[in-house]
Amino acid sequence: MLIRPLVMIDLPDVLTIERESFPAPWSAGMFLLELDRADSLCLVGEAENKILGYVICSQLDLDWHLMNIAVPPAGRNEGIGRALMTALLEQLGADARLTLEVRPSNEAAIGLYKSFGFMLAGRRTRYYADTGEDALIMWRTEGTLRGSLEDVPNADGGAR
């Protein structure tokens, strides 16, 4: 699998994966906004001219926010998400601070994030408008890589 920058011509395939993966999918406009941002990193995994997955990450102040990562249902559990996360972290650098929100019901994603050193740091109540589900806030920092939330802002370990 080749991992490369996401470009506009990829959007039809990316949007298909997005719609297959999320109950409240991003619009084409949301992807275009991320592609236009100088402080976003947008990658796709591709094999035999087929998009296998994508990841979108944006810098907010000094931290990076993992905005979106998806692999179509038929391609899950094949290491595509892991390869995308590995490539993202290689490009951001070992000392990059990352945060994300994830549905508590998305156990596969939570497991993937934990395997990369993310730790649960908080919760956003009723974050997902489509279901009213909370979001877990996870961080990956120098501290979380050592098993500590010491350098995570407002961390409560997901209590609430």
Structural account:
The chain is an alpha+beta fold and 160 residues long. The chain folds into two domains: 1-58 and 68-93, Aminopeptidase (3-Layer(aba) Sandwich), CATH 3.40.630.30; 97-160, Gcn5-related N-acetyltransferase (GNAT) (Aminopeptidase), CATH 3.40.630. Helix content is 29%, strand content 30%. It is built from five helices and seven strands, in the order E-H-H-E-E-E-H-E-H-E-E-H. The protein has helices spanning 11-21, 28-36, 80-92, 107-115, 142-145; strands at residues 2-5, 40-47, 50-60, 63-70, 98-102, 119-124, 135-140. Strands 1-2-3-4-5-7-6 form a seven-stranded mixed β-sheet, sandwiched between helices. Helix 3 links the parallel strand 4 (63-70) and strand 5. It is globular and about 45 Å long. The model has no long low-confidence stretch (mean pLDDT 94).
How do the helices and strands line up, and which of them pair or pack?
Elements: E1 2-5, H1 11-21, H2 28-36, E2 40-47, E3 50-60, E4 63-70, H3 80-92, E5 98-102, H4 107-115, E6 119-124, E7 135-140, H5 142-145
Parallel strand pairs: 4-5
Antiparallel strand pairs: 1-2, 2-3, 3-4, 5-7, 6-7
Uncertain regions spanning at least 5 consecutive residues: none
What structural class is derived from the secondary structure elements?
alpha+beta
> How many distinct helices?
5
Judging from the principal axes of the Cα atoms, what is the shape? globular
Radius of gyration: 15 Å
What is the terminal separation in angstroms? 41 Å
Q: For this structure, what is the CATH class of the largest domain?
A: Alpha Beta
Instruction: Count every beta strand, where a strand is a DSSP E run of 2 or more residues.
Output: 7
Strand content of the residues, in percent?
25-35%
Strand order of the largest sheet: 1-2-3-4-5-7-6
Please, what is the CATH homologous superfamily of the largest domain?
Gcn5-related N-acetyltransferase (GNAT)
Secondary structure: helix percent = 25-40%
Order of helices and strands: EHHEEEHEHEEH
Largest sheet: 7 strands, mixed
Q: Enter the CATH topology name of the largest domain.
A: Aminopeptidase
Whole-number total of structural domains: 2
CATH architecture of the largest domain: 3-Layer(aba) Sandwich
- Mean pLDDT value: 94
